[in-house]
Amino acid sequence: MCAYTIGLDLGGTKIAAALVGEDGVPGFKVTELTHLEQGADAVIERMAGCIRDLQAQSDAPVLGLGIGTAGMTDSVNGVVIMASNLKWKNVPVRRLLAEKLGQDWLERTWVDKDTNAAVLGERLYGAGRGSRHMLYVTVGTGVGGGMVLDGKLYHGASQGASDIGHLVMLPEGPLCGCGKRGCLEALSSGPAIARTTTEALESGAESQLRLTFAARPLSAQDVVEAALRGDALSCQVMEQAGTWLGRGLAYYVDINNPEFIIIGGGIAAGGLLLEPVRRAISQFALPANTAAVQVLPAGLGPDSGVIGAAALAWHQLEHTSF
Q1: For domain 4-121+302-317, which CATH number applies: 3.40.50.300, 3.50.50.60, 3.90.400.10, 3.30.420.40?
Q2: What percentage of the chain exceeds 70 in pLDDT?
Q3: Res 295: pLDDT
């Protein structure tokens, strides 16, 4: 008999959830606006409603629930410790959902940060399939990561592992949201790309983006799209961002000797970061470790959030050998 887990991707704008089989293929899907302004309890009720809808549509047993969320999580107890995009602190998601869905859900619901969910999804079903040593990196509003070491999801001593966005690369560099200067996130994220391009235009650089810049603030997506059209300034900015990212990842390559580094997130679309990342790793990591690692784009596409979240549940249910 086939079975499903439910993967739920909790974001600041929307909640996406799906029934996902052991093969990683999403079935019936639902989405809801998050409506953070209504408070955590209302968001939890909306999540519960998505789960009820999926249960009603399921033609096979639903064995568990995986939830991926941005921010810091206590994966042991199912608590979102701090998520700035949700404006949540110490929200016991697993317990609150079980109160709404039934206590039988308490032992079959798992909550983790979205990048940990993503690395499991990519290892089970995506670009890093079958790897025992891999890192997933997301480049978007921030720079985050999730790692699998020796075939196991790695959380670290205080569940803070893989937070590569806050490696300090340039101590006198731009201020990061964490309060430090020159973090990888302050040099390679979407806001960093937009800021660097804006500063260049303010200094008189020529670019296809000058008219856009005159009309409104630039976004990182503007820069990515212009680079894909061949705009020289945008290509230079993306090259710089990818080089910083690769320099940071070179430390990881020499410390953990992975087989795969998978790069995802909105800013990675189009593959513009991949070559500068590869070149920088080749330049700064040891040759033997560089030769062992493949740097690849994420493979799960627009459903990566729900597939990764479902992979959390499959992982815990031991339906896949790790």
Answers
A1: 3.30.420.40
A2: 98
A3: 97
